[in-house]
């Protein structure tokens, strides 16, 4: 099987699949480029495109084509175009699987076909990141993204199926060159009393983890940028370890501290770069344990992120209008950051909690973060990885926890939430504090001698307190919200909900009433029309100021005319 034969089969298959040339940009284009490249080599037959004739349904042929492409990709010296096309074929073939079990079987078979290849990331010239045999990719919330043995991740910023590549780089003429005016790749050394901080501005992604959390050491707009004497050694070590780009390092007594050892993983950060950990080789270079790769396509130091996503306004889709506590908190990374700060900074120096947690397992912070993630509406990480509710109850059984321990735990976890940068809006903190109080008191109760907690319960699910959600009220510090102009109907024009009434209610009005009914739902507003009208006339709705008289009259007219949709 040759690349030319794959191309011929892909073209034939493309005509038989759904309308719209689904293989044109992601399979046929890169295969054609690979064939053209092969035609320039000494063996001209390598680029010849044979005649093919195939039988079977399009779905069956797609699966066979994906397997053959994977076999060819697994050979030494596979060109970028073949690898990119293989990634697309694997993805499509798995999507065509009949069910989740069949998809898992296909992924396992494809993984076996290229199992001899190392886990690595290669940067295609003016194209995507070619990710081989990576098994852990998560979004910015820590939720897993489905992986395939061969993947092509967007780096031009224009894909409509992010993080996967859809071939947009070819359409927009993306170039992967470095900017000659980029910040030099040079390491500076800042010596302190206890710790020497190493800093390379040339590879900094400007995530702000250091400046936001330790501004007395990492100083925005000041020179020198790093002042090691501005913080405690443990705080500096923690900030350096949190740096996702690898720009920061540290030396103690003249010896460079080793990077943390983590499992290979890729995080698709929110509105920012891919954050790589675990030493995944980049273009064969395995010297970095962690680094950040540009995802917006505008970095001056491609493929390394230079922070340009901030300046160009690169943004992922926003949160849903009804985010969970897990989403609003920042997901598993934010909760893990909080629990690590709690158990590394506060617990060891506390006279009450220090002895209590002296023998905790090394992964205890991750376990607590997984519990909180699941409790706050995230993925069922604690249930799937650590044993769920029964395991948590067993962890506390017989420990006879006291109110003093509980109270100190609740106090310090709140401080850790501040240090970790969890949201500080009243709505989130009310829900967070409510769970900390409830959960810690349940733990004390379950830990008493002779306690018999109900068995086999699910992990509890926590929610916004009294349905008070971010945006459901008008902040006293927020600038005035200007109302959008509403088109008033003519006197002889029927009043309709969609055209005239729904536009009267802003998104914030809808959120503020979501715990009762939906102001953008015709049926809900009809059901409560009389009560709404009464409050509109009194000026008590909306809460930030009465409607103009003509808007109240319009609503009253809609009610009188029979609530037209």
From TrEMBL:
Coiled-coil portions: none
Keyword Transport found: yes
Organism (species): Nonomuraea mangrovi
Protein known as: CDGSH iron-sulfur domain-containing protein
Domain Iron-binding zinc finger CDGSH type as annotated: residue spans: 136-175, 279-315
Region named Disordered: 38-59
A Pfam family per the record: Fer4_19
InterPro entries named among the record's database cross-references: CISD (IPR052950), Divergent_4Fe-4S_mono-cluster (IPR010693), FeS-contain_CDGSH-typ (IPR018967), Globin-like_sf (IPR009050), Globin/Proto (IPR012292), Hemoglobin_trunc (IPR001486), MitoNEET_CISD (IPR042216)
Keywords in alphabetical order: 2Fe-2S, Heme, Iron, Iron-sulfur, Metal-binding, Transport
